[in-house]
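Researcher: Next entry in the queue.
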Amino acid sequence: MECPECGDEALPFVVPPELREHVPSSPESVAICPTCLSLEPSENGGTELTDFSTVSDALPDDRETAAAMVLATALMSSLARNRRHIEALFDHVEATGVDPLLVLDRLADDPDLRPPFNIDRRREQLLQLRD
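Model: Structure for this entry, 131 residues:
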């Protein structure tokens, strides 16, 4: 599946059932662009979680935790609209012992990622909203 935003090949993956309620429209599978982090519903996400190291080495090794982090980061494109989803996904990441803010720092430093938003700026905005 081609990314509608940048034309790169999007990576389809199944959304773990416990995370679906935290994604707008609760899709069973989505496709994430490994370049711009655009998120789109997908018909063919497979049956297993994908290896998210193809998106960034900054993501956690645990695939479910990485899925939650990828979803939360992609949803940061519209912080106001997706705030509760992002916070719930970050809570899920934190429950596994991973610091989502540290992961965001590392994602912001990844030269291969070019989202249409500034990850550092969104991280700061999210911190202000969570206080």
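Model: The mean pLDDT is 92.
Researcher: Noted, moving on.
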